[in-house]
């Protein structure tokens, strides 16, 4: 058999194994042996080892080394098993990775063949990693198909039945209940020794998902391999996990967070992470797990992706957790298994297994059973204390606590203090942490004293080594040790624990806060709870973060700290209710003078002004945004880098809309200098191109962003922005798909849902799908009003007006524009103003009214301020409309040609097609015969049909049918009309009225 789970070796039956030589022939044997019956083409195998060589040279190298590999196989007696079938090479060898092999998992991708590497062959190294990942995926699949196939350790004595029940159960979830010390943890780890384990920690359940993250950190090599596996399901969630485990994406900027998608993505990422580690997940001390972790476990149990097995103290389970689990029990998806105390016979079996050299008499066993009440931990403590030879009294668990405390007192003083330090820390801690809590002096003497104390505590069984460090060997040892601490000693240990944990980069802020609270310093604890709220926000737990910030704001005696908490609360509210957010931010601004530290006051004002600029931009109040921006620019040079990045981003948003495109580019240059790898740089590049009128460049920048950073679709509005570009460039189907993707990515976030609904409604209007367009735009209007955003509300009403005008409902369009007018009274953004004036002009003429001269003046001013193709095309369209109303065919044709030139030069397909229709109407007005114009109309119809512009297609088809049309023209016109009417009855589209609007064929 060829051994591959360890260092590769050939192991003949009944003989010592021979290590496989780390040579190219040996590597060829490895690769071929793992191909199985499928084999591998010679060219692919040669390219694996010699990718840079010419094909003929690579095949020559392969022939030479295959001869040497055959010589190696001949020594094993398997030379004839290497054969060629056409261009494929096959090697059939028994290995320890075959389907009928043991159930042991393959090594991690980083570790497989770690002691057997072939230097200088990058293709083989890539094959090694990919093969290790494939083997791990295959092992996981096999384990999930066979629930009891995972390897197990021998069952603890007297727990064979429970061990078998754990191993064979196919339930999605199983809960093992028992008293403290009953052996639940031992039983779980014996049943599934290789499974990852979440550990609830008493008193340290303030931070969501802590047990999950502690468990993932102990499996980092396997997790990293799963993240890097291109065929795995975890890679797309790398950045979500990196919020909690920064080592997965070191020095890589992460996308911004939002209130809903972050939490949903994170829970899914954690599920996929543990799926990649094994088929079963263990949970120890479920009663101390935080609500978010319990919620996550409930989600797992509702499906069949990953089974979990948990242990909990039956009398310490929180009511909320019990109630949360009850629906699973009722649905049969959670089984409970009670771990009863040891019977007298089982206790005898345990004693024989644990202390084989001791022959306990029946009377001794009777006494031990009576004293321990069948509790395995108590039994161990009783024997360690000298029972049954010594009379120890019957009281439990107080008696067990006293026995633990006596063992503690028997230790040397420094070793006992180390156990006390571990009891206060609760979580596993490295030796240097316990050394800090012991207060030992720096230098060799302190190191030696610490090592000796820890060794004594380990030898006494009071401490135990875990993957993350040292901890009390059992919860009951920790509880008994903590119970005997005096007040002064307890306060001192908690203080030192808080000081040490606070210096760790991965510090759980809520844990540090809890230590400060226990140390009797509540105000310091509030400062750490503020940091903890930031961590909660990063984990998608926005509601919990806001609850903590409210607590800090209400209870902190430090004005700066209280204002910072209120500022964070206002920022969380920014995209939900802009008016409320502005009110909260202004209330904070009024109190800034009370912050005594100038540097802190400056930082807070910078953050506040940036939030106000952002708020007012999206509210459509550019005047207020400009006033706040002026002060922000003054503060910008003195702000820390993180604050300057945020300030540059909001200033770019404002500059694009003012519009001051050169200023936007200058700010983007600053942003690039501050954070060159920040993906939002590409996003802003695309947006500046868009506002500057370079549609294709904007599209290309956003397409690059989506290709390079697909994970950022939940932090940046890249899908929505790309949908705008695609719509403008005439790619309706792709634009619709991108807008719907954006709605899925940002589900539940009103701000972006509103944006994406606006875009989707416009795309569907162009496609002539009126009912769907109306639903999308009405949704956008509702969301805009809920956010108090005049900007979005005006956009929704103007786009709805376009829809109604297209559907032959000019009266409804006029009503919508009248409602939008007050919202746009002070607007100066050329893109917004030009669209509103265009719709107002077309609606007025459709209703038989003259357009307002002041509106036309606003359009001229907007066009002069920004040479954007859309603004220029809208101005030309208005000029064509005015000329046609005046009966001036020459001016109308000139305007149509101007619109066509702008549209063609920038790729604006819909505008170019409509310009051709305008030219058709103008030329007809000038007296050109219909027969001469038919080829132009036919070309317009073909272009509109190809692009999916249903309304433009119908208008061209209707003209052809009415001007010397054939029967085929009539059928095409009716088909186009049927599509516009849709399946809804009554139809939103009024064909009779629509036929009277531009180009007014009637």
Describe the structure.
With 1002 residues, the chain is mainly α. It is 63% helix and 5% strand. Strands 8-9-10-7-11 form a 5-stranded parallel sheet, sandwiched between helices. Strands 1-2-3 form a 3-stranded antiparallel sheet, with no helix packed on it. A 3-stranded antiparallel sheet has the order 4-6-5. The relative contact order is 0.04.
Shape: globular
Counted by DSSP, the helix tally is: 47
Instruction: Count the beta strands.
Output: 13
From the helix content, strand content and strand pairing, which structural class follows?
A: mainly alpha
**pLDDT below 50 for ≥5 consecutive residues: which ranges?**
391-396, 998-1002
Largest sheet: 5 strands, parallel
The value of Rg in angstroms is 37 Å
Mean pLDDT: 88
Topology:
Layout: E1 2-3, E2 9-10, E3 18-19, H1 24-35, E4 40-41, H2 42-49, H3 55-76, E5 82-85, E6 88-91, H4 122-145, H5 160-168, E7 173-178, H6 184-191, E8 197-199, H7 210-217, H8 220-228, H9 238-242, H10 261-277, E9 280-284, H11 291-301, E10 307-313, H12 319-330, E11 334-338, H13 344-354, H14 362-372, H15 376-384, H16 398-410, H17 413-425, H18 431-438, H19 444-459, E12 463-466, E13 469-472, H20 475-483, H21 487-502, H22 509-518, H23 522-538, H24 542-555, H25 559-572, H26 578-589, H27 598-619, H28 622-635, H29 641-657, H30 661-674, H31 680-691, H32 695-708, H33 718-728, H34 732-745, H35 750-766, H36 770-787, H37 790-806, H38 810-820, H39 830-846, H40 853-865, H41 869-885, H42 889-906, H43 909-925, H44 930-947, H45 950-962, H46 967-981, H47 991-994
Parallel strand pairs: 7-10, 7-11, 8-9, 9-10
Antiparallel strand pairs: 1-2, 2-3, 4-6, 5-6, 12-13
């Amino acid at each position: 058999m060829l051994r591959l789970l360890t260092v590769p070796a050939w192991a003949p039956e009944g003989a010592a194994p021979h290590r496989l030589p780390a040579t190219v022939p040996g590597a060829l044997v490895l690769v071929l042996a793992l191909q199985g019956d499928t084999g591998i083409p010679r060219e692919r195998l040669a390219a694996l080892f010699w990718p840079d060589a010419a094909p003929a040279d690579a095949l020559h190298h392969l022939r030479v080394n295959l001869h040497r590999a055959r010589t190696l196989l001949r020594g094993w007696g398997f030379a004839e098993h290497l054969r060629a079938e056409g261009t494929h090479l096959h090697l059939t060898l028994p290995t320890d990775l075959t389907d009928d092999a043991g159930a042991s998992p393959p090594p991690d991708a980083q570790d497989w063949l770690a002691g057997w590497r072939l230097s200088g062959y990058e293709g083989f190294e890539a094959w090694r990693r990919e093969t290790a990942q494939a083997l791990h995926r295959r092992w996981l699949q096999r384990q999930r198909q066979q629930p009891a196939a995972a390897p197990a350790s021998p069952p603890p004595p007297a727990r064979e039945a429970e061990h078998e029940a754990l191993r064979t159960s196919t339930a999605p979830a199983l809960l093992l209940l028992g008293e403290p010390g009953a052996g639940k943890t031992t039983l779980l780890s014996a049943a599934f020794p290789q499974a990852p384990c979440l550990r609830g920690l008493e008193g340290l359940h303030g931070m969501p998902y802590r047990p999950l993250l502690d468990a993932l950190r102990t499996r980092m090599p396997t997790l990293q391999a799963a993240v890097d596996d291109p065929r795995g399901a975890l890679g797309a969630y790398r950045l979500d996990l990196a919020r909690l485990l920064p080592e997965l994406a070191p020095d890589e900027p992460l996308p911004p967070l939002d209130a809903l998608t972050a939490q949903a993505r994170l829970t899914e990422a954690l599920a996929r992470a543990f799926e990649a580690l094994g088929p079963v997940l263990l949970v120890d001390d479920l009663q101390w797990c935080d609500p978010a972790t319990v919620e996550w476990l409930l989600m797992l149990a509702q499906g069949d992706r990953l089974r979990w097995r948990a242990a909990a103290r039956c009398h310490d389970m929180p009511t909320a957790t019990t109630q949360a689990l009850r629906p699973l029990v009722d649905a049969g998806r959670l089984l409970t298994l009670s771990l009863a105390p040891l019977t007298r016979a089982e206790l005898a079996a345990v004693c024989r297994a644990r202390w084989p050299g001791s022959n306990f008499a029946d009377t001794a066993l009777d006494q031990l059973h009576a004293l321990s009440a069948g509790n395995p931990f108590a039994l161990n403590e009783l024997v360690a204390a000298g029972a049954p030879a010594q009379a120890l009294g019957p009281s439990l668990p107080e008696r067990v606590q006293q026995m633990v405390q006596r063992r503690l007192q028997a230790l040397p003083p420094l070793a006992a203090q180390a156990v006390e330090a571990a009891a206060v820390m609760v979580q596993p801690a490295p030796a240097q942490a316990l050394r800090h809590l012991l207060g030992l002096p720096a230098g060799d003497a302190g190191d030696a004293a610490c090592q000796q104390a820890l060794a004594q505590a380990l030898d006494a069984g009071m401490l135990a080594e875990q993957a993350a460090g040292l901890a009390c060997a059992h919860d009951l040892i920790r509880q008994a040790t903590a119970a005997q601490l005096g007040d002064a000693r307890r306060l001192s240990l908690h203080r030192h624990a808080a000081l040490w944990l606070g210096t760790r980069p991965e510090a759980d802020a809520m844990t540090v806060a809890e230590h400060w609270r226990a140390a009797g310093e509540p105000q310091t604890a509030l400062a750490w709870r503020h940091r903890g709220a930031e961590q909660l926000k990063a984990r998608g737990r926005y509601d919990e973060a806001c609850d903590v910030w409210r607590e800090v704001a209400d209870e902190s005696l430090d004005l700066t700290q209280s204002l910072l908490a209120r500022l964070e609360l206002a920022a969380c509210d920014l995209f939900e209710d802009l008016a409320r957010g502005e009110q909260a931010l202004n209330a904070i601004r009024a109190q800034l003078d009370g912050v005594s530290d100038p540097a802190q006051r400056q930082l807070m004002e910078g953050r506040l002004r940036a939030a106000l600029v952002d708020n007012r931009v999206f509210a459509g109040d550019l005047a207020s945004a400009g006033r706040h921006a002026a002060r922000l620019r003054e503060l910008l040079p003195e702000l820390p880098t993180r604050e300057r990045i945020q300030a540059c981003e909001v200033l770019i948003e404002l500059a694009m809309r003012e519009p001051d495109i050169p200023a936007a580019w200058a700010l983007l240059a600053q942003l690039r200098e501050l954070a060159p790898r920040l993906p939002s740089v590409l996003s802003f590049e695309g947006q500046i191109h868009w506002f500057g009128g370079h549609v294709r460049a904007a599209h290309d920048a956003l397409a690059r962003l989506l290709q390079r950073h697909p994970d950022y679709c939940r932090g940046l509005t890249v899908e929505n922005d790309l949908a705008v570009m695609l719509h403008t460039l005439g790619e309706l189907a792709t634009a619709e798909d991108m807008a719907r993707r954006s709605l899925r990515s940002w589900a539940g976030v009103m701000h972006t849902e509103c944006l994406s609904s606006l875009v989707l409604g416009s795309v569907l209007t162009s496609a002539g799908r009126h009912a769907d367009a109306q639903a999308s735009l009405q949704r956008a209007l509702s969301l805009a009003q809920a956010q108090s955003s005049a900007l979005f509300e005006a956009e929704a009403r103007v786009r709805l007006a376009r829809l109604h005008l297209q559907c032959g409902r000019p009266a409804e369009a006029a009503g919508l524009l009248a409602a939008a007018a007050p919202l746009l009274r002070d607007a100066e953004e050329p893109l917004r103003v030009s669209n509103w004036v265009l719709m107002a002009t077309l609606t007025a003429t459709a209703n038989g009214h003259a357009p307002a001269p002041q509106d036309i003046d606003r359009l001229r001013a907007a066009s002069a301020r920004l040479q954007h193709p859309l603004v220029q095309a809208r101005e030309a369209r208005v000029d064509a409309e005015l000329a046609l109303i005046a009966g001036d065919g020459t001016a109308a044709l000139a305007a149509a040609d101007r619109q066509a030139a702008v549209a063609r030069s920038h790729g604006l397909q819909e505008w170019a097609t409509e310009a051709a229709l305008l030219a058709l109407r103008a030329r007809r007005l000038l007296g050109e015969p219909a027969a001469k114009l038919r080829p132009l109309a036919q070309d317009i119809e073909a272009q509109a049909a190809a692009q999916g512009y249903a309304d433009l297609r119908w208008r061209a088809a209707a003209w052809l049918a009415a001007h010397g049309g054939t029967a085929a023209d009539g059928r095409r016109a009716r088909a186009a009309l049927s599509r516009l009417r849709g399946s809804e009855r009554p139809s939103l589209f009024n064909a009779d009225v629509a036929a009277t609007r531009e180009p007014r064929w009637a």
